[in-house]
Specification:
CATH class: Mainly Beta
Strand order of the largest sheet: 1-6-5-11-8-7-13
CATH architecture: Beta Barrel
Helix content: 10-25%
Number of domains: 1
Distance between the termini: 24 Å
Oligomer: single chain
Shape: globular
Radius of gyration: 15 Å
CATH superfamily: PK beta-barrel domain-like
Largest sheet: 7 strands, mixed, barrel
CATH topology: M1 Pyruvate Kinase, Domain 3
Order of helices and strands: EEEEHEHEEEHHEEEEE
């Protein structure tokens, strides 16, 4: 299974939206160089308040461009990076990947998928109703979180729009993604 990088983004400050760039540098064990969420331990403010020594399982945030298209069809106007993602992808159903899947991006970067992004009410600050729009229910009425996935950097490298993403599945059994 392969896909592509559509956009890359980062912000040195804790802002929801992140500007698009020509490239980002992933650092092994840390995340996106220069991004506010880079680090070995948690950097998301709510998690730091709970326990600042927790490992950072949210070093890199990825959203599939297909979600942007779905939201645009529902009347939202969104650009890559606007929902806080570092990497906007296309061609891979990120939400269906099992935990510990590896994403080989560009020439050398490897991200290991840790779980689902748990959307927060800050999304409504972008556009009213966006938080509700990135949540759904399956046929059994289980909550579906559509706001992307999170990962850790196993191997660093430069990531650019247009880079190929190759999917390497973990050994079975596969475990579904849960919020991290």
């Amino acid at each position: 299974m392969t896909g592509a990088v559509k956009a890359v983004s980062k912000s040195p400050e804790h802002t929801m939206s992140k500007p698009n760039l020509d490239s980002i540098n992933l650092l092994a064990g840390l995340g996106v160089e220069g991004d506010a969420h880079m680090g070995v331990t948690v950097k998301h403010r709510s998690r730091v308040k709970q326990d600042p020594t927790q490992p950072n399982l949210r070093q890199v945030h990825l959203i599939h461009a297909e979600l942007h298209e779905e939201l645009q069809a529902a009347g939202f106007s969104l650009e890559p990076g606007q929902m806080g993602e570092n990497i906007t992808t296309s061609g891979i159903n990120l939400l269906d990947l099992p935990r510990n899947t590896q994403l080989l991006i560009g020439e050398s970067a490897i991200i290991e998928v840790t779980g689902l992004r748990n959307p927060c009410v800050q999304l409504d600050g972008i556009q009213e109703g966006l938080m509700k729009a990135v949540l759904g229910r399956d046929e059994n009425n289980n909550l579906i979180r559509k706001a992307g996935i999170m990962g850790i950097v196993l191997q660093g490298g430069i990531v650019r729009p247009g880079d190929t993403i190759r999917v390497r599945f973990p050994e079975p059994p596969f475990y579904p993604l849960e919020k991290v």
